[in-house]
């Protein structure tokens, strides 16, 4: 697995997941349960992970849809 991007915005994560699933790219959100530690205020970013062999294709899908890679949006 390779990290595609990080975000504290759950709507960006949901949109990215939908885009990737639409392109048949498996993805996994990590750090989703960190809200227990932070009290639900959204300060810890979640990581969007994809398989290493899918990374280039997934990165292209994100760029084509205006999602910045490597950013904490």
UniProtKB/TrEMBL annotation:
One Pfam family matching this protein: DUF2007
InterPro entries found in the cross-reference section: DUF2007, N-reg_PII-like_a/b
Domain DUF2007: 1-64
Origin: domain of life: Bacteria
SUPFAM superfamilies in UniProt: GlnB-like
Gene3D superfamilies: UreE, C-terminal domain
Protein name stated in the entry: DUF2007 domain-containing protein
Organism encoding this protein: Pukyongiella litopenaei
């Amino acid at each position: 697995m390779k990290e595609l991007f990080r975000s504290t915005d759950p709507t960006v994560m949901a949109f990215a997941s939908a885009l990737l699933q639409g392109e048949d790219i498996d993805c996994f959100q990590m750090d989703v349960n960190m809200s227990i530690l932070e009290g639900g205020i959204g300060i810890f970013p979640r990581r969007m992970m994809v398989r290493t062999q899918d990374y280039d294709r997934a990165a292209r899908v994100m760029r084509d849809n205006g999602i910045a890679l490597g950013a904490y949006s």
